[in-house]
Amino acid sequence: MKTWHYALLVLLGGCCYGALSTFVKLAYAAGFTSASVTGSQLLMGTLIIWIIALFSKKKKLTLPKVGKLLLSGIPLGLTSLFYYQSLQTLNASLAIIFLFQFVWIGSLFEWFFYKKKPTMGKVISIAILVIGSIFASGIIAGGSGEITWQGTIWGMLSAITYTTFIFLSGSVEKDTPVVQKSALFTTGGMITVFIISPPTELLQLPVLLEIAPYGFYLGLLGVVLPPILFTIGMPHIGPGLGTILTSAELPIAVILSALVLSEHVSTSQWLGVVLILGGIIAGNLKIAKTKIKPSYLERESTL
Fold first, then answer.
1. Is the pTM of this model over 0.90?
2. Could you tell me the residue range of the domain that residue 227 belongs to?
3. Mean pLDDT of the 2-24 span
4. Beta-sheet strands, E only, within 141-188
5. From residue 114, how far is each of 111, 154, 280, 295, 303 by CA, in Å?
6. How far apart are CA 228 and CA 179, in angstroms?
């Protein structure tokens, strides 16, 4: 494969994340609850990835290692719960902005856990990101719909748990084959969701059959494809370009919210998206030009 082929795979992985909010909104419009939507995604995604794992490379793991991987999947389940809860009161184009704050939250994690103080270039890129988020949220244009405090809290919580999951996925049992590792992460996330917000509606066969198409797409796009695509493409294009390409989730979320959900997206929101992408690029230019050891956020992303 050529380099641009690997870049395309990473780009598609980012696009998968961007499409999630639209499918969730469609499921809500069809009358399904947050618990049933989240539960169906984790259930279907876990089934799909375990089927793939049956035919993939595996290694024998001790019980403590299995337990560690299952526990590391807790933030994955919490991210789905928090993010989909935010979508109940926020437009899709706004909810994704709150989730995307994992970029600067990740820098705080690096500073706290690895004592890696952000460089001036990183601080500037974060500032651009925050300004871009304000524009992209639609607050200035007044076209993003109502911004509720509930949606804001749930959205920011999803960003924190997403960052936590990325941190754990890049530091726990690194030598475990990616599909096997992702399957255990996902299983831990599914158990978490089923305990905190039991999707009792799924016990009814008619409801399960009706929501199955939504669960299939959400599981495929949010659980199965991104980690596989990133694992194939990232080693060949480098962490700098890889991080830039995964940010495709933002424009995809905004485009789909406008085309599929008919949500209003103003010129200032598009400007905000451009600023956010510019901030990501500015923060990764040095990394792309110099082959330094990638940070945990760039080594692996498997939500």
1. no
2. 3-299
3. 80
4. none
5. 6, 27, 21, 10, 22
6. 7
